[in-house]
Amino acid sequence: MHHCGESGDGQFIYTLTATEITRGWTELMPLRNKAMVWTMSSLRDIKEKFPVNIRKIHSDNSSEFINSYLLNFCRENGIEFRRSRSYKKNDAPYVESKNWSMVRQYTGWRRYDTEEEYQILKKLTKLISLRHNLFIPQMKIIEKQRINGQVKKKYQIDIPVNRVLRMNDVDQTMKKNLINLRNRIDIVKLTKGIVYLREELEKIYTVKRSKQKCLPELE
Q1: How many domains does the chain have?
Q2: What CATH number does the domain containing 148 carry?
Q3: 0.85 surpassed by pTM
Q4: What H or E segment, with its residue span, contains residue 117?
Q5: C-alpha triplet 126, 132, 136: angle, nearest 5°
Q6: What percent of the chain has pLDDT over 90?
Q7: Could you tell me the residue range of the domain that residue 37 belongs to?
């Protein structure tokens, strides 16, 4: 997810979104820029944070993913690597939906490109991930039927952590840790923390913009 505002020029902050399509568990990681060092560091952190084993990675076709570094990362960890189809906007619908519900709705479309904004986004995305993974129900299609030319869909609504806890291939230690994590977190305090960080991000952005408008023009 690009935080470039109205212009893609120069360097700006990105948010790396990784979602497990079966359970809906999602981790967000802000990147200072597209440099490979940040992308690979975030992927390693995400791998450690995911409560399920990563068996496949399906990325978009951006240069930060289609490269030898990610390919070697997948090989070293026994992960199958797949890429999106070029020019197919609907080829990564799961990530796109998370980019809207878990990133844009919290951060908007502003341009973030400073260290202060990065530090706020780092804290904010961590809380957003916790809120959505542990407390927010998500809708998932569990059955499709075509009847008289119409597709009938059956949905299941549940919280990602509950789906993970029902998995047989997640060890009991991980399940216990997830239960303890959820029990330790106060959803009201968590939500207030998100609101506070969003307000701080807006303040920092507003100050930055006011300073930019005051810069003299030189010829």
Answers
A1: 1
A2: 3.30.420.10
A3: yes
A4: helix 115-134
A5: 155
A6: 58
A7: 14-213
